[in-house]
Amino acid sequence: MDHAPAPEFATERLLLRRWRESDREPWAAMSADPAVMKYFQSTLTRAQSELFAERVEERFEQNGFGLWALEVAATGEFIGFTGLNPATFEAPFTPALEIAWRLARPAWGHGYATEAARACLDFAFTTLGREEIVAFTATVNTRSMAVMERLGMVRDPGDDFDHPMVPPWTHSHLVRHVLYRMRSADWTPRG
Predict the structure, then answer these.
(1) Which of 13, 25, 52, 186 is found 20 to 30 A from 44 (Cα to Cα)?
(2) How much is the average pLDDT of 70-84?
(3) Would residue 2 count as lying in a domain?
(4) For the domain that residue 93 is a member of, what is the CATH number?
C-alpha cells in the first residue's frame, strides 16, 4: 500500500518529524537508561535500540504515520518520540490505534509529551478520521497516566487489562495495565 510521505508537525516548542541517523545515538542512550525504561520489561541493548528505530521507519512506510521523533525547536535536540502505533496484541479493545510517547529524562516535567500528543491526536482525528485512540500503561506508571488525563482521555477501570506480552513470572508489577480512551466526538482541535 502506497502512502503519502508522513507529515511533520510543529507545535509551540517542538518539531515532530521522521527519524534521522543522528537520532540513533541519543535514542540508544535513552533506551539504556533504567529510569526511562522503568515501566518496560528491560532496558534495550544498542542492537535492540537500532532494531526499534528500524521498525519505526518501516511502520512509517507501511502506514504513513508512526512514532515521530521529537525535537526541541529552539535547540534541535532529539528528546524521544511521540506518535501513533497500531495495537494488535490480543485484548478486548484491540485492534486499536494507540498514542504513545517516551522521552529522555532531561525532557521530563516540561509538558513536552502532552504538547506532542495533542498534535498526534489532532492528526488521528482530523486527518486519519479515526473514531477512537487509546493509550495504556502499567498501573504503576502514574506519570504517563497523568499525561493521558491532561489530554482529556478517559479511563473506565472495567477496561483495565493484563497485558498479554508481559510475562507475569518475571514482571508481575507490570502486567496489569490501565486503558484510557479518547473518542473523536470528544476531541476539540487546537487552532
Answers:
(1) 13
(2) 97
(3) no
(4) 3.40.630.30
